[in-house]
TrEMBL record:
The keyword Acetylation does not apply. This is Glycoside hydrolase family 13 protein. It comes from the Bacteria. Residues 143-540 form the Glycosyl hydrolase family 13 catalytic domain. One of its GO terms (molecular function) is hydrolase activity, hydrolyzing O-glycosyl compounds. CDD domains: AmyAc_CMD, E_set_CDase_PDE_N. It comes from Pontibacillus yanchengensis. Keywords: Glycosidase, Hydrolase. The keyword Transcription regulation does not apply. SMART domains: Aamy.
Length: 638
């Protein structure tokens, strides 16, 4: 049997209906074609429930005989309990048995013929009762590393940790002072504070931003503050609880929500809970086994040998299954979550979400939603969150009632790999459709999409590294500028929430930590880029199709990727009222050659959003020539 003698494509509704994730208890129809020169005895679909590893089979019915292919179909019922369901096909001939499955666990779509049990396609079975907040699906995010954004007033140096190093010039580059083992012995601070953020709220709003995500702001020893000292206190160098409440209130007056970084998998060793250096007026776990916090930590040999995050001794790991810790974090009247809810803090990003149990995340989720249904819980997940496994357990992030969103690093990786030339548009198309297939629609439209963050190199630095060394400086700068505009326009028009890392819009560069955490260059911004981000922020704000409209991608050439976004009949993908419109995004990643592409699309005229050029369809097809490194957003006129 040859590969083309058999065909199933999970992306096409003629082979899998409905496309993508399926509500619990619903039916999914599966179809496979087999060339009619084979004497087929029977075709069987094997489907496995992920939670029980229980395998079931069903024989497909022959329902069509045409075009040299016989089509076999079966309808299978999804389980009532949300989980993953895996499926593949078995084709029994007179003398041989073949199997048909997907190419790899990372890629859906067309299948491959096997002589053994193959990789299976995934169906994500979710609970449709859980929906992500409407405001969030329409949001535009701005991420701030608080110490490096803006100082309002004089930095209160005396409030910095004793071992800190304070920069006297805002233009300095950040750096670490390490010991012979690589441990940081002095943290450098620039003095950015909460009042500084408040002072720049109008600037942030001008970018079209509707939610600010803050890296940790609680009392800590380091400048990144992922080593929490006290969950109930704002770091004094940043300001006070009253300052934070003022930020929440003034941001809300401008239509901007605030999201906090929740670091709940570990604390600092220098904290009220562990108290390794005896700097807190508390009985810490390091000091006594009688400490109320002792069972929060996992000691191999008390007090100096304990579980620590990635082996970093200053970050002792918390035992998330201890009830007293769960009460402290979520349920007590003065719990961390409830305390900050009283200050108006409703939205959290969970640091290293896979190191928290789903049960604990679910408890946080329920407390947030009980107080305010529009609260958002976002998780730091670096992989496909639908089938993520950690510590021997399949995670249930998107099955309903655990998370509202995750950081979409898979999208970032694919975007940069495409620009770099490591993958072509066809590969990109298949991988992004795989994500779309795996994620329930509520979550696909709620993902945090970004190019840069505090954990990765800034986008301009990445793009510079991709280019060959022999380019002239001016040519290099021009290419990078065009690439930044192309990628950011992609980010702002793709389903999900675009996240702008502070300073990217000003042209800030930076490699790995700490270089990616430079101070914002106030007064030295790249005005052209600031104007560009302001423009695309306005486009996203003004056009519902770019936020919650339907989505259809196209791989038009190995170097050209495109997708349509539209609203019709006055409602968006979620049945909400929206203006009818139809948009088209295209990108030519080739920085040396112009490329002409043609696609079948809605008849009429299409107008370039930036320079107002007009393109017309002919016989239902639109032909466009993209200059080297060009991207464009077109809007259908009539």
């Amino acid at each position: 049997m040859k590969q083309h003698d058999m065909y199933h494509n999970s992306f096409l509704q003629s082979y899998r209906e409905p496309f993508g994730a399926a509500p619990r208890g619903s039916n999914v129809s599966l179809t496979i074609d087999v060339h009619n020169h084979h004497q087929v005895q029977k075709v069987i679909v094997h489907y496995i429930y992920d939670k029980s590893d229980e395998e079931q089979t069903k024989e497909l019915d022959l329902y069509s005989e045409k075009h040299y292919y016989n089509s076999f179909e079966a309808t299978i019922k999804m389980p009532d309990e949300p989980q993953l369901v895996w499926y593949y096909f078995e084709i029994v001939l007179e003398e041989y048995t073949f199997f048909y499955g997907r190419l790899s666990i990372e890629e859906s779509g067309e299948g491959v013929l096997y002589e053994h049990i193959p990789p299976s396609w995934q169906i994500t079975v979710y609970d449709p009762e859980y929906q992500t907040p409407r405001w969030w699906k329409n949001a535009t995010m701005y991420q701030i590393f608080p110490d490096r954004f803006h100082v309002e007033g004089d930095p209160e140096l005396e409030k910095a940790p004793k071992s800190s190093l304070m920069h006297t010039h805002w233009e300095n580059d950040p750096y670490y002072i390490r010991d012979e083992n690589g441990g940081v012995v002095r943290w450098d601070f620039f003095g950015g504070n909460i009042q500084g953020i408040i002072h720049k709220l109008d600037y942030i709003k001008s970018l079209g931003v509707t939610v600010i995500y803050l890296n940790p702001i609680f009392e800590a020893e380091s400048n990144h503050r992922y080593d929490t000292g006290d969950y109930h206190k704002i770091d004094l160098l940043l300001g006070t609880k009253e300052d934070f409440e003022q930020l929440i209130a003034e941001a809300k007056d401008r239509g901007i929500e605030i999201m906090l970084d929740g670091v709940f998998s570990h604390t600092g060793s220098n904290s009220i809970y562990f108290n390794q250096r005896n700097e807190y007026d508390s009985l810490g776990a390091y000091q006594s086994k009688s400490s109320p916090y002792y069972d929060w930590y996992m000691f191999h040999e008390w007090p100096d040998e304990y579980e620590a995050w990635w082996g970093v001794g200053t970050l002792p790991t918390l035992n998330k299954e201890v009830e007293s810790y769960q009460q402290f974090l979520v349920h007590n009247e003065d719990s961390v979550i409830k305390t900050w809810q009283q200050s108006g803090m409703n939205h959290w990003r969970l640091d290293v979400a896979d190191e928290l149990t789903d049960d604990l995340i679910r408890q946080i989720y329920q407390q947030l939603k009980t107080n305010d249904e529009s609260s958002v819980l976002l998780g730091e997940v670096w992989e496909d969150a639908s089938n993520k496994s950690a510590y021997g357990k399949r995670r249930e992030y998107f099955l309903g009632g655990v998370l509202d969103s995750v950081m979409n690093y898979p999208l970032r990786d694919l975007m940069l790999d495409f620009i770099k030339g490591e993958v072509d548009a066809y590969f990109l198309h298949r991988r992004l459709l795989t994500l779309r297939e795996h994620y329930p629609r509520e979550y696909f439209y709620a993902l945090m999409n970004m190019l840069s963050s505090h954990d990765v190199e800034r986008v301009k630095t990445m793009l510079d590294a991709f280019l060959p060394d022999d380019l002239l400086d001016e040519e290099r700068r021009n290419i990078i500028q065009q690439q930044v505009k192309a990628l950011s326009l992609w980010l702002y028009t793709f389903p999900g929430i675009p996240s702008l890392y502070y300073g990217d819009e000003a042209g800030v560069t930076g490699g790995k930590d700490p270089d990616n955490r430079k101070p914002f260059p106030w007064g030295r911004e790249e005005k052209e880029l600031v104007h560009w981000y302001t423009k695309i922020g306005q486009w996203r704000s003004n056009h519902a199709a770019l936020r919650t409209g339907s989505f259809k991608p196209h791989a038009l050439h190995e170097d050209v990727y495109a997708y349509e976004r539209w609203v019709k009949n006055g409602v968006d993908e979620f049945g909400k009222k929206a203006n009818n419109e139809h948009m088209l995004y295209l990108i030519n990643r080739n920085y040396q050659e112009e490329i002409e592409v043609t696609l079948s699309i809605r008849k009429g005229r299409w107008q370039h959003m930036l320079d107002h050029r007009m393109f017309r369809t002919k016989k239902g097809k639109l032909t466009i020539t993209l200059a080297p490194c060009e991207s464009m957003l077109l809007r259908h006129i009539h």
